Amino acid sequence: MLQTVVQETLEAEMTVAIGAEKGERTAERVGYRSGYYERT
């Protein structure tokens, strides 16, 4: 149970810090979340 609470808290903090949900792509930011990026 504690692990779940900590994980959810960390996910929420990361979402706020990066400005995107996990797996979400946005035009406004240059960073990536979950390792997604355009491959050439």
TrEMBL record:
<comment type="similarity">
    <text>Belongs to the transposase mutator family.</text>
</comment>
<comment type="function">
    <text>Required for the transposition of the insertion element.</text>
</comment>
<dbReference type="GO" id="GO:0003677">
    <property type="term" value="F:DNA binding"/>
</dbReference>
<dbReference type="GO" id="GO:0006313">
    <property type="term" value="P:DNA transposition"/>
</dbReference>
<dbReference type="InterPro" id="IPR001207">
    <property type="entry name" value="Transposase_mutator"/>
</dbReference>
<keyword id="KW-0238">DNA-binding</keyword>
<dbReference type="GO" id="GO:0004803">
    <property type="term" value="F:transposase activity"/>
</dbReference>
<dbReference type="Pfam" id="PF00872">
    <property type="entry name" value="Transposase_mut"/>
</dbReference>
<protein>
    <recommendedName>
        <fullName>IS256 family transposase</fullName>
    </recommendedName>
</protein>
<keyword id="KW-0233">DNA recombination</keyword>
<keyword id="KW-0815">Transposition</keyword>
